[in-house]
Amino acid sequence: MSAYGPIKRTAPENSLLPTKLWTAGSASAQPNYVTTHHLTLSSALSLDGLLDHLSAVFAKEVDDGFTYPQEGEIDRPTFDGYFFSADVVVAIVGETRPIEREDGDIEIDISTARSSRPWSKCVAGFYYIKPNYPGRSSHVGIQTCRDSSWKQNRN
Question: Quick one: which of 44, 105, 112, 119 has the most CB atoms within 10 Å?
Answer without folding.
Answer: 119
